[in-house]
Amino acid sequence: MFDWLFGPKTKTVSTRPQLRRINPNSIPSRGNFQRDWKASTDNDASLNHWGKANGQSINTVLSLNLNKIINRAVYESRANPIVDGTINSHANDVIGSDGPKIQFKTDSDRWNTKAEKICKDVFKSIDGSGELSLADYLKQGVRSLWTTGAILNQYVVDPDCETVVRQRLHPIPVQSLYSHLRNQTDTMLGITRNTLGRATRYWIVESGIEISAMNFKITPKEIPARDIQHVFYKHETQQWRGYPWLASSLQALAELDEYDTAVLDAAKIAAMMAVLFYNTRDDVDSEENPSNFEIARQSGVKVPTGWQPYALNANQPTATHAEFKADKIRDIGRPIGMPLMAIQRDASKHTYSAAHYDGQGYARANESIQVFLATGSVDPFVSLILTEAMLRGALPYRDPSSMSGSWSWIWPQPPAVDPVKKAMAQRLELENKTISPQRACLQNNVDFETLCQEWKKANEILKANGLPEMLGPIPADPMALANALKQYENEHKNEDKEGDEGDDDID
After folding, report:
1. pLDDT, tens digit, for every residue of 438-458?
2. Nearest residue to 244 (alpha-carbon basis) of 60, 72, 480, 437
3. Domain-located, residue 3
4. Phi, psi (degrees; rounded to nearest 5) at 269
5. Is 422 within a domain?
6. In a shared domain, residues 373 and 401
7. Does a structural domain hold residue 262?
8. pLDDT one-digit tens code per residue, 481-506
9. Residues 121 and 174 in one domain
């Protein structure tokens, strides 16, 4: 029975079968024994789904599709209220109401104070037109990442500004990159790069000229790469341009729009055909058709002789309509970690733990975007501000190579779901020395130095009006509270005693 596997039967003393090398071609075929991925199998379904998975490089795909994807993403952001509201909410969550605050950390407090003042003056009007603050500029950048996939600026000098430092950013629409220029092997997607992939020149179409108008010759403007700030997420190596965050959600948005339109049409038809009439007699006069009779609201209906009404059930929208819409809307925020709760601004269907979990993940995603914006866009501009300030004598000179890491950003933090629990947790961390007062202040959107100055000013006002100074946080332990009050009382007794002795000396 197993001759094909063990060989022919032979007389031998040993009962152990004698194995020989097996020829794979001699094994009976029982299907495909090759181990592979099921997704690599070619059939009608797989070819229909992965027909465009042809291994093209990211830059080739961008060259063929980027302009079309950007145009559709921009259209959705302008015409779709869900997309527009999602982008605005996300920009507010990441940037906050007035943007991040800069704090210098060099060994010279005087230098830090001057540098912070210079930067704050520039941040009031960060662009060349003088219309955008730092917060407005960053929110505009977040919107550009959603719709175009990049932030594009030109470093310019504003001769009409009133600040000491005249360096400014000039925002450029990403669509202005002349992607049609392919007359050189090192130029693609409006950017010329060297053999190592470093950008050397950017080709910009002047504002107001439509690239689609091919009836006349377009001459793009050549700008050196050192004067351009191009910020985008690099998803793949050697990627030359970024693509919109909305790119992967456009199909879901189109399906959602088609579905809503179909459901609305079905609901209208069901509403208009809520009542039908059918005749029960063959000799009914055609002039007695119910369509010729108007049905007044909140009044009885007199049906003509021989006709019977039939009421239809309105089944639109269906019970799964809201669930389907929620799944499609969730796809909008998934590329940047934005949960459905944040998109809809509704946590009514979430438990406290679920809302807290979604909020934590969303906060971490926003923190990564804040770091990306700081390191990619704002930090290089701050370096230029400090360099110009030192060259103009507004700041004492420091070696630019030693300036790296000499400042940090205070980004706004989302409000606590339970402020009492957050405050108690911070208090325990401070008592255990696992968190510094500076970091605790950052979690509350407060600058530690500013807070100390405000406390100092408050105590001075209290003391000037004959009131005791603030004790700070009150201990929760009754014994610790009693000891703190006793220590405070002894300190003031000593101060009063020293004051009396000073009065005696004056007399």
Report:
1. 888 877 878 787 888 888 888
2. 72
3. no
4. -65, -40
5. no
6. yes
7. yes
8. 677 667 767 766 665 555 555 545 44
9. yes
